[in-house]
Amino acid sequence: MTVHTPTANQSGGQPTPQPPTADRRRALSTGARALFSRRPSGINLAPVILGLFVVCVGFQTANSNFLTPWNITNLSLQVASVGVIAVGVVVILLLGEIDLSVAATSGFCGAVLGVLNVELGWNAWLSIVVAVLVGVGIGTFQGAVVTFFRVPAFVITLAGLIGLQGCTLAIFGDRTAINFDYAGQVAKLTSTFMTPAAGWVIAIVSVALVSYLTLNERAKLKAAGLEHAELRTQVAKLVGLAVVLLGVVAVFNRDRGVPVAVFVFVVIVVGMDYIIRQTRFGVRLLAIGGNAEAARRAGIPVQRVRVTAFAVGSGLAAFGGVLAASRLIAATTQSGAGDTLINAIAAAVIGGTSLFGGRGSVYSALVGILIIGSISNGMDLLALPSAAKFIITSLVLLMAVIVDAIAARSGRSQVKE
């Protein structure tokens, strides 16, 4: 029990009570938990998901082929590679930085894969691993320059974009493409589909695993006296997840089955979300993105986390390039060019990840790329020109950035108050 000693005021009147020590400690504890909570700084995905629903309903109304199993399967394969790149973009945005070289990294690493597997005859899986490691090395180098030389990430990664495009052209020389074996392992990465039974088993196991982890985390928070969601709320969310997941598998099974590449993409999203929410690296990443100086004073190794984040982002970009090469069954001089960079960054931002750092979710990459992919696919079905596709995507991105800026300003105002 804490004893509070009253202190007399200068006029000799009634003693002025001091703030209770226990209350001060409780306030400090609450603030610390808020700063270093293992849950990412919250974003509300509901409006984004509603937007995706509206897009799908709109295009289905305009063209009845939009929501057919065949088109949904093709759409999911189209967005998988850029979606993986977008996950890497989310990691770097959470840090409060930007990487403009992710698309060029994906194209360069796709070219490396082609040289190793086709020209040098390396094993396909070994070639994929080396290509991804090359991407990790690129990110590590750029992250180190940004961190230790205090050069803006925008400048360094812009230089990386230009340099990597040049390196890609140098690899191809007079050629425009390196073609993979149609029956090889690289091509099968995006042309292989699960059996219906395998799809159902994975869906059921996934729902069971997510339910266990979610309810177990809630139990731990409750036991520690920390803020936690109501049981019925989480159960409702889990039921919704089960309905969506089983429904998606049912749709895929009506066509060719669950695409392996899409499954890998979802595993990457779920895995990175777990890393951001449940690991020390994720907590530190969010803390630095929220306030780098406060994180440094709290003892967080800011430099190491920054370099690691860039390495992870580029590694994911490299794997996205592998998926793109597999989808085309070729590595080309145009890989990673065009709208790849725009779509990857737009997916992260449209999904709700803040450009100002410290606020977002890995799932924003998944939802964001589905919105962008749906717009692109729907316009292709309607035979609309590319100009309309770019204009509409830009308007959606503009709205997302404005909402993000308003949310960031509102957050700063609340902190000042």
Secondary-structure blueprint of this entry?
Elements (H helix, E strand, L loop, with lengths): L6 E2 L6 E2 L4 H15 L10 H17 L6 H26 L7 H18 L4 H25 L4 H20 L4 E3 L5 H7 L4 H28 L7 H23 L6 H19 L1 H11 L1 H6 L4 H27 L1 E3 L7 H11 L12 H19 L4 H31 L1
Antiparallel strand pairs: 1-2, 3-4
Helix pairs in contact: 2-15, 3-10, 3-13, 3-14, 3-15, 4-5, 4-6, 4-13, 5-6, 5-13, 7-13, 8-9, 10-11, 11-13, 14-15, 14-16, 15-16
Give a nutshell description of this structure.
With 417 residues, the protein is mostly helical.
Secondary-structure element series: EEHHHHHHEHHHHHHHEHHH
Across the major sheet, the strand order is 1-2
The overall pLDDT, averaged over residues, is 86
| Overall geometric form | globular
Largest sheet: 2 strands, antiparallel
Number of strands: 4
The number of helical segments is: 16
**CATH hierarchy, class of the domain at 51-192 and 259-406:** Mainly Alpha
Helix content: over 70%
The CATH topology of the domain at 51-192 and 259-406 is given as ABC transporter involved in vitamin B12 uptake, BtuC
Strand content: under 5%
CATH architecture of the domain at 51-192 and 259-406: Orthogonal Bundle
Structural class based on helices, strands and sheet pairing: mainly alpha
Features:
16 helices; 417 residues; disordered N terminus; two-stranded antiparallel ribbon; ABC transporter involved in vitamin B12 uptake, BtuC
Would you give an account of this structure?
The chain is an all-alpha fold and 417 residues long. It has a domain at 51-192 and 259-406: ABC transporter involved in vitamin B12 uptake, BtuC, CATH 1.10.3470. The chain is built from 16 helices and four strands. It has helices spanning 21-35, 46-62, 69-94, 102-119, 124-148, 153-172, 185-191, 196-223, 231-253, 260-278, 280-290, 292-297, 302-328, 340-350, 363-381, 386-416, and strands at residues 7-8, 15-16, 177-179, 330-332. A two-stranded antiparallel ribbon has the order 1-2. 38% of the residues are buried.
